[in-house]
Amino acid sequence: MSPDSRDQRVDVGPPLDPHAEPQLLATSILGERGRTLAMVRQFLAGQLRREQVSGDVAATVGVDMVAELMVRVTMSVLLTPSTLIELDDEEQPRELARRYVVPMLKA
Question: What is the mean pLDDT of residues 67-93?
Fold first, then answer.
């Protein structure tokens, strides 16, 4: 990512604890006929387009589809407990992103 995009932060309020409030999180993300999901996807696609311009994301990447997949995978990981993915271990989600998400940005 470019230095400029790392400096910009969006305040979305306190995070919801997916372990304590999965229904609230699901309702928030999926409510209004997927409108929130679509807004998050559009925002992420815009960020990815900026990264394409700076050369950090391959020009051949379909940013709309990659953003869709990223949002859906993230939503699934947050809402569905896993015996393979330990969210409380800070390094494991980072490694998953390096191994599986970053390659989508080079396609």
Answer: 86
